[in-house]
Amino acid sequence: MKDKLVHQMQSYVAETCIGASSIRKQGGSGLIQAARDYFKSLDLAAIPKEKGRFNTWLDEHTERLLLNFPDGTRKFGTARKALNLFLRSATYNCCLNQAFRLDAVLAVLEVPVDRYTAKHLLHHDPTIAKKWVGLKTVTKEEHSKYQAVASALATQWEIYRVDLDVFFFRREAGSQ
Questions:
Q1: Are 101 and 133 contained in the same domain?
Q2: What's the pTM value of the predicted model, to 2 decimals?
Q3: Are residues 21 and 97 in the same domain?
Q4: In tens digits, what is the pLDDT along the chain, a chain of 176 residues?
Q5: Residue 61: exposed, middle, or buried by beta-carbon count in 10 A (0-12, 13-18, 19+)?
């Protein structure tokens, strides 16, 4: 029964971690369901716990997720945010965390990048970009710059990088 619970919990987290507002205006019909379906079948036991291997795994699964998106919706920023939202939710979920020892990846998880995160990170380091244009336009290189600033800020605040989203979610830059 426990295996069934873990499987059901992963499906539940996959369904609930990506809401309509999470990746709204990122493409046509089917985008959110494609992400949810991908996350339901993701092998959480195979997530590497070491930073270098995790980053390679994250890049590979971002690409795989993109391939599952409907035509015209395959944007790096959208796929990476969706994947980061799922990984964060799975790690925060005690059932999945315990079953797959996900607490070991907390230190390497990325903060999901959206306009709120971008504005806060730009507030802390204006050299990242001139301004936030939109999730659809975020390239892998730009995303890496946001994550570098997020890493420095998380270290300064003595929290995990992924946890910054709790402070940034729907808050204007400069407020906490």
A1: no
A2: 0.91
A3: yes
A4: 688 999 999 999 999 998 777 666 656 677 888 999 999 999 999 999 998 999 999 999 999 999 998 887 788 988 999 999 999 999 999 999 999 999 999 999 999 998 889 989 998 888 887 677 788 888 899 999 999 999 999 999 999 999 999 999 876 655 55
A5: buried
